[in-house]
Amino acid sequence: MSERPSLQPSIDAWTHSIEAISELVAHLTEGEWNSRTECPGWSVRDIVSHVIGLESEALGDPRPIHTLPRDLYHVTDETSRYMEVQVDVRRHHTGPEMTGELEYTIIRRCRQLRNDKRAPDHVVNSPVFGPMPLEESLRRRAFDVWVHEQDLRRALDEPGNLDSPAAEIARDMMIEALPAVIADRAKIAPRSAVVFDVSGPMEFLRTVRVDEEGRGSVSSSPSLGPVATFTTDWETYARLACGRMRRRRAADRLKIEGEQEITNRILANFSITP
Q: Using CA of residue 118, residue 143, residue 22, residue 39, what is the dihedral sign?
């Protein structure tokens, strides 16, 4: 058990998901490495490259010196440009090169996490999210790796781990983001409520309420008169929240009640991933 018990759940969840990724890609053919995923512009190889790249940076490895091509349609801002460097630099790596680097990165990162003595509130710098406590940084790494594990599972038709330790962290982080999604981004009117009823291995029922000042809060108590209600399964919810699926594709798995203008605004602002 870690000397920092508040960090251990995130470390365990991250370990579970990144080892699952390693197992998923261990015996892929070259064609399977090129399979498209739901991440715009990214293949299976690109997802694994992204995971390797971020974990390498967490280890303190220098970033590659690399110039991106100008025709990458999915690179639209500085965040996506930053992420793409670690991906594009590995685009011509072979399967064995990818699995070898991934396995070595996991070994090094596990050793780092095992020997790390920093306190949970120690501030670390995230290249995307800026300074944050180590505890939050590790939660985000578990979340990110689980999301990409699911990207790979869908691309390779290998479903699983929708109820894993990292899935629990992902669910909690998605729920925590709901007040900002509803009140700040979708700008739902004050004194309104929006309900999310999610079934499956990570089932939950949550109500997001917007108070008189326009601030959002989330609770497990039901609302008798919500302006919108979304009913779906856990995998669909996660894909929507991570920008992997749009309303049209989710139509047969998503029940929506409420005025279309309001529900469209919510879904247009629903993704919480960069």
A: negative
